[in-house]
Design a protein that fits this description.
alpha/beta, DHBP synthase, Rossmann fold, 2 domains, 11-stranded mixed β-sheet, 15 strands
């Protein structure tokens, strides 16, 4: 398969380009497209054969459910027979935007989309290209992140090409995504309502609508992004969660130990601390107080280190508030233990 790339201007969308992409979706093909969070890998959500191609292209396990993207509230009513007032309150407050709602699914939704679960994850993306593609395709679009399974999510079209060249029909390139981490996933099928995955909408904002929301602490795979190890670069990731000078000293000690052993080291640091690691390859996540920028930069930094052949990435923690909760979730999953044989520089 040859993967084509078409550039799209988000502020002046060429409908001819969108129709080309929509025709691929309608014919059962795969299109990678930008959302406000990360790039998604889309197929007709109501076509099981097309959805199966997503799993094949990504090497994604079939027990990992997909998010269905819509552009019209009427499609929500097609996908779920149990849409209550609280659902519509959340829709009014956060859609379009980086919030995915888990609802009881209707018979319209193929079981491959939901990994056999009786629930479906749905969201309306806040990106003009994504919304135009969904509308022109005239169907909900199932779309996980457009990367090989387990890798850092793509925030540029080049990231998609790096992972999926020859595996997808078309990539719509609209530049870098804004949010940089995936959507928050909120389960409305259990009480109290539970956050299955932290993301672009923070807990504090959700509690303005539903005060008693709780994070999910179980280990069942109920939504995307819930595997213990995920969002992982090829390098070994070590997250240092101490604060202040203790954190800096520990990172310098770890980096020195790995460097002496002959490994290529990379450090992810906050803007304020970048000069503390002058002996090492440092990439700046962003200012400690600008968690939006930190989130937008995270996956790109992990991918940059991989391209440079880095074998060990040592990351500073960020404050767990707002988007910091999602950033820490991604870093913890990136460092989750795996069998790994490090090759020295």
């Amino acid at each position: 398969m040859k993967t084509d790339i078409l550039r799209v201007d988000s502020f002046g969308i060429d409908q001819v380009t969108i129709r080309i992409a929509a025709d691929i979706i309608k014919s059962g093909g795969l299109v990678a497209f930008p959302t406000e969070t990360v790039y998604g890998l889309g197929a007709d959500a109501l076509n099981p054969e097309a959805v199966a191609k997503i799993f094949e292209a990504k090497n994604r396990p079939l027990n990992d459910p997909l998010i269905v993207h819509i552009a019209d509230i009427q499609d929500l009513l097609r996908l779920s027979n149990e849409v209550y007032k609280i659902t519509l309150d959340l829709v009014d407050a956060f859609w379009p935007g980086p919030l995915t709602l888990v609802l009881k699914k209707s018979q319209t939704v193929p079981s491959i989309v939901t990994a056999g679960l009786e629930t479906v994850a749905v969201r309306m993306p806040d990106h003009p290209v994504a919304l135009s593609l969904i509308r022109e395709s005239q169907t909900p679009i199932a779309a996980p992140s457009a990367n090989l399974f387990g890798r850092p999510s793509p925030t540029t079209a080049q990231h998609v090409l790096d992972d999926l060249n020859g595996r997808v029909d078309l990539i719509l390139d609209a530049g870098k995504t804004n949010v940089g981490v995936e959507s928050t996933i909120l389960d409305l099928t259990q009480t109290p309502f539970r956050i299955l995955r932290p993301g672009g909408v923070n807990l504090e904002s959700l509690r303005t609508i539903i005060p008693d929301i709780e994070p999910y602490n179980g280990n069942k795979i109920l939504a995307p992004g819930m595997f213990i190890r995920h969002y992982s670069p090829k390098a070994k990731v070590i997250l240092v969660e101490e604060n202040g000078s203790v954190q800096i000293d520990k990172i310098k000690m770890l980096a020195s130990e790995f460097a002496v052993q002959g490994y290529c080291i990379g450090i992810i640091a906050k803007e304020e601390n970048k000069d503390k690691y002058s002996d090492f390859n440092v990439k700046v996540l962003g200012p400690a107080k600008n968690l939006n920028l930190c989130a937008a930069n995270l996956f790109s930094i992990l991918r940059e280190f991989d391209k440079e052949g880095t074998q060990v990435i040592i990351a500073e923690s960020v404050k767990e508030e707002g988007l910091g909760v999602a950033i820490m979730d991604r870093l913890r999953k990136a460092q989750a233990k795996r069998k790994q044989c490090l090759t020295k520089c």
